[in-house]
Amino acid sequence: MMQQELSLLLQTPDFSARAVLEIEALAPLSMVAKMPGKYYRSQPKPTDHMLWGMLENALGWHISDVERKQLFAKLKKQHKLKDVIGSGVGYQSLLQWHVRFGVVIVPPLMHYDDLWTQHLKGKNFPGGSRNYDAQAIPIMNAERGKRIKYSDAGSAKKGAALLQDFEEGDEIHIGVLRPHFPQYYSSPTPREYVEPTGNYRITVETSPALLEALQAATNNPAAPLYLGSNDGWIEASWQTIQQ
């Protein structure tokens, strides 16, 4: 079925079919368009890439980056198209040349901030991860008691034995702990959310065949639908204007 839907992309882009996509938020939405620093600001409405991503998710197009690049190369050659446009987080949609969005009606919104658990890599993992090997407890207790300190300097002591065999005042390389922790740590990060008090209504233009496929997919999605963060659950429905 997915191969049949993907074959629609080989047809010449056609925007003769028009419909209204109506989106009901089932949870607060945080529609962040790019990866910022210390604060994740939500857009008031979904971006084109978010909408394309939601539709691809409904279609079940969970395609690896390697296969996606191969498809893009084929589509660019087939239609003599320009370069692929990516979102602020690097997502590139296969639908971008075949589905376009027009007027967006935004319902009244309530805005608020909340803390969101961000997973990061880096040397701060001992203080940020709640999951670690019990063998690391003695050295972690010593560091909390300021009897030793961690360092990433080349002169810092190294070796697995230091987990148990250390002396007061030691400067121990942070890499000693690395094998006993996950490859990330958690950082509470302020994130903005919006709660729509009505539905978004978005004009969509595409080909009749692709519109039919998109309508069928959102009625029976291959995966749960969301916008922004993956807990921003939504439901989508369609009203055809012209086909």
Structure write-up:
With 243 residues, the chain is an alpha+beta fold. It is 23% helix and 25% strand. It is built from 6 helices and 8 strands, in the order H-E-H-H-E-E-H-H-E-E-E-E-H-E. The protein has helices at residues 2-7, 48-59, 65-79, 125-128, 137-144, 208-219, and strands at 17-25, 100-105, 109-120, 149-151, 171-173, 185-196, 200-206, 234-242. Strands 2-7-1-8 form a 4-stranded antiparallel beta sheet, with helices on one face. A two-stranded antiparallel sheet has the order 3-6. The longest helix is centred in the first third of the chain and has 15 residues, at 65-79. The two termini are 22 Å apart.
Compact overview of the structure:
The chain has 243 residues and is an alpha+beta fold.
Keywords:
243 residues, elongated, alpha+beta, two-stranded antiparallel ribbon
The share of residues in extended strands comes to: 25-35%
The radius of gyration over CA amounts to: 24 Å
- Global mean pLDDT: 88
Helix percent band: 10-25%
Sheet with most strands: 4 strands, antiparallel
Enumerate the spans where pLDDT stays under 50 for 5 or more consecutive residues.
none
List the helices and strands and how they pair.
Blueprint: H1 2-7, E1 17-25, H2 48-59, H3 65-79, E2 100-105, E3 109-120, H4 125-128, H5 137-144, E4 149-151, E5 171-173, E6 185-196, E7 200-206, H6 208-219, E8 234-242
Parallel strand pairs: 4-5
Antiparallel strand pairs: 1-7, 1-8, 2-7, 3-6
